[in-house]
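G., the chain you wanted modeled:
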Amino acid sequence: MEIEFDGEVIEWRGPAPFFYVVVPDDVADLIHELASELTYGWGVVPAGVAIGAVRWTTSLFPKDGGYLVPLRAAERGRAGVELGDVPHLTLMLGAP
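Predicted structure as tokens:
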């Protein structure tokens, strides 16, 4: 299943800074409905992600009833995405 949305890039500072796109509530609700069929544990959901022509695989992280899409530095750089941007994402849920 493919889902498209625009989401804000945020930063979480732990031992190292991590960047995520926040999945909007309506999209998170849909993912939550499907999560039990897709998750491989801990509530994470495997997904393919595309921002324009930049594609990669990752897992969506559950957070406060919603989901976050991790943005690795390599993909952020290739897509030209920075903190505070609102990129258009395509998620391919359940992608390997």
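The mean pLDDT is 90.

Shout if anything looks off.
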